[in-house]
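Appendix B, Record 12. Input sequence as logged:
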Amino acid sequence: MTAFKAACVQMRSSDDVQENIRDASNLIRDAARAGAQFIATPENTTLMAPDGGAKLDKSCPEGDDPALPVFRALAQELGIWLLIGSLAIRVSGGKTANRSFLIDSRGGIVARYDKIHLFDVDLPSGETYRESNTVAGGTQAVLTELPWCKLGMTICYDLRFPQLYRALAKKGAQLLTVPSAFTETTGTAHWHTLLRARAIENGAFVMAPAQGGTHANGRKTYGHSLIVGPWGEILAEGGTDPGVFMAEIDPAQSVDARARIPNLRHDREFTGP
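Logged structural output:
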């Protein structure tokens, strides 16, 4: 197993797709110049629309999406592996998929993951979200391979469903990605706790590139992109501004954590409640 340098790209995306592509590309270049070999961007990398309808209006089928060719070419140019946290991809039924893409260093799409758990909530702050009105939820968990370790792909609200992460870890994932756009309200309360818990209970590294700050549409996201080690230690953390946050990931540390606390092998059947 070989250690590698990983970077979270933190953004403050708007509803201007081309502007977001430029901003993401510049930050990806910054990360590559700093030595990152695997770089991950947040959920809604190229489009933070004021509502689901506006996002649907600006979405395209995968084959027509303007961002994918740019990011594929960039990964090849820089010789990096690139996780695009999510793009709004138009699918059938008048909806989009909230889709994450893993791109290899030759520019090929290695894996796709459609967000399974959709954010339908009414927050005490008065914020209301109904992601399922315009987004088709995925049904398939995705485990894929990086050159250094196995990767489990998830997105944002998935974080609150530990069974998904356990299933990925039990199949060998040593790195779990959680590109996100957590609200300021929920992030302040739960972000660090949830990410550290997913790392600890699975003996895995967790990378969570985030949206952060006040967006053009007035929405406030929490930021604080994190890279967490398999013992729960925070290896890198952002604030609320866009930037790049890096750490070394050594898959051998995941092996060691799972040997010290072998809970992934200790599941037991039970009855009730």
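The chain has a mean pLDDT of 96.
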